[in-house]
Design goal:
The chain is an alpha+beta fold and 259 residues long. Helices cover 38% and strands 22% of the residues. The protein contains nine helices and eleven strands. The chain has helices at residues 88-91, 107-117, 126-141, 155-166, 174-180, 185-196, 200-217, 222-228, 234-245, and strands spanning 16-23, 27-32, 37-42, 46-50, 54-58, 62-66, 72-77, 79-86, 101-104, 144-145, 148-150. A hairpin with a 3-residue loop joins strand 4 (46-50) and strand 5 (54-58).
Length: 259
Amino acid sequence: MRNVHIDDYDGLDREVVAVGNDYPGGYVLPEHRHRRAQLLYGATGLMYVTTHSGSWIVPPQHAVLIPPQAAHSVKFIGVSTRSLYIEPESAKGLYVNERCKIITVTPLLRQLLIEAVALQPLYESERDRLLIALLLQELAVMQAREFEIPLPQNPPLYELCQRFLKAPAIHDSAERWAGALFMSPSTFRRHFLQQTGMSFSAWRQRACVLVALAKLVEGQSVNEIALSMGYDSGSSFSTMFRRVTGQKPSSYHPSSLSV
């Protein structure tokens, strides 16, 4: 099914409902939730998925698994999506601790998603049911990518994190953040770890790399991104990028991304 709303089909007596939608650049779906779990995939463009506890950047050829009833908003940058809405019982085991999860979409999984969207809402044939069963099997073995930026619940710290994400700098210091929160550096580091589950330095590094990933997909050069974030050189940025993502920055340049 194409360009329909899941609410009109949520009650279908089917384990999985597949829907495809096209979104204009910069379109934002405000915070909402689904009864079913959702696999949201974009072959091109970028998606930004935000919940109360974290932000996920979804590059091309990746998908995000969103747990049932998880309140989330999505910003689309030039994306044509394929979504699976999965009954909660069937989605168990696809995510951990009720948190979103990013996966790489393999060529097989991509083709299965395309075929699923082409099914009739009340698919009946054995072939169609086997296709859906294989989809769920493939999802179960996909490894998670570390494309999450955890966000704190403490409002003043949350605001600092949001400001950082708008203009990330790799050498921004814990001492500066501690001063802004009227804490000692050691107290701040403990507070940050408690709030996000990551050390400040690890969070800062991941945030820089993931914001950079989005800029790469948009076509910015490695050197331009590296200098804007305070890296000493494009090569030092590339080393850090590969350490966090397991891939070279050039892997996310538009010229390297196939539909």
